[in-house]
Automatic annotation (TrEMBL):
Cross-referenced Gene3D superfamilies: alpha/beta hydrolase
Domain Serine aminopeptidase S33 stretches: 79-186
SUPFAM superfamilies named in the record: alpha/beta-Hydrolases
Gene Ontology terms for molecular function: hydrolase activity
Protein name (record): Alpha/beta hydrolase
Organism: Pseudonocardia xinjiangensis
Keyword Protein biosynthesis tagged: no
Annotated Pfam families: Hydrolase_4
Keyword Transferase on entry: no
InterPro entries, per database record: AB_hydrolase_fold, Hydrolase_4
Protein keywords: Hydrolase
Length: 271
């Protein structure tokens, strides 16, 4: 009987622990999902030729700071909206902006709500609203022809870019290190949690990308330790898009962040 009673207590303790863990994960999940950084310490004028700060206004009343960089080479007439991943701020994407500008592209580096010193807190719907606001700024205020607008989404930003490409007219889409869905990523990094039942935000990239009708390219790192290359390849397959793998590149390596294969992908979808 004592053994039975001990076994029962162990089971009860494990159940309680599982319930507590799941409850905490549900309550604090967005702190695990979104990892914002503070405002950049250096203004864009000191980092980018012709760089400037612009203000992007969202449909729910937020004002977001973003950086604009004009082409520094023979202009292609194409603008690239960079929708960033889940770490750093727009300052971290300066090398990408420089590489694109040097190839003749105008560039807008967006920071989402809660990122880069911007107000608000990140959610799936909030990031989608931020992307729509950036699109509206470029098309309405700067007069960018949507056909000459390329979306560049990196990691988490690939999910945001894919949704925007379905919701608004654009000319092309580059997805760098995309995952198939947030639940699939959670299963990789938090295998002990029932992520599919707990997640508030979903980011169903593989499902959404099937509805994208513009030229699309997927770029991934062969040694990506954050987003499994199998997930990026699955997104490319779902999109019917070319898949470009940068050999031995990890998730945050410079070659994958702003290397020649990345810039060439933008060039290809821009026509």
């Amino acid at each position: 009987m004592r053994r039975v009673a001990t076994a029962v207590r162990v089971v009860i303790a494990l159940v309680v622990l599982a319930v507590v863990t799941a409850t905490l994960a549900w309550a604090f999940q967005r702190r695990l999902v979104y990892l914002p950084s503070g405002a950049p310490g250096t203004p864009p004028e000191q980092l980018l030729d012709g760089g400037s700060t612009v203000r992007v206004h969202t449909e729910d009343g937020l004002e977001l700071a973003a950086w604009y960089a004009p082409a520094t080479a023979l202009a292609t007439g194409t603008t690239v909206l960079v929708l960033p991943g889940n770490a750093g701020s727009r300052a971290v994407r300066v090398p990408l902006a420089r590489a694109l500008s040097a190839s003749g592209f105008d560039v807008l580096l967006l920071d989402y709500r809660g990122y880069g010193g911007n107000p608000g807190s990140a959610t799936e719907e909030g990031l989608a609203a931020d992307a729509r606001a950036a699109h509206r700024h470029l098309v309405t205020e700067r007069g960018v022809d949507p056909v000459r607008l390329v979306l560049f989404g990196e990691s988490l930003g690939a999910a945001v870019a894919t949704r925007l490409a379905v919701e608004r007219p654009v000319g092309g889409l580059v997805l760098r290190s995309p995952f198939t869905s947030l639940a699939d990523m959670a299963a990789v990094h938090y295998p002990f949690l029932p992520a599919r039942a707990l997640l508030r935000d979903r980011f169903p990239v593989r499902e959404t990308v099937r509805s994208v009708t513009v030229p699309t390219i997927v770029v991934a790192g062969g040694a990506d330790e954050i987003v499994p290359t199998a997930q990026s390849r699955a997104v490319a397959d779902a999109a019917g898009a070319p898949y470009v793998e940068v050999p031995e590149a990890r998730h945050n390596d410079s070659e994958l962040g702003h290397g020649p294969q990345v810039v060439d992908a933008v060039r290809q979808v821009s026509g």
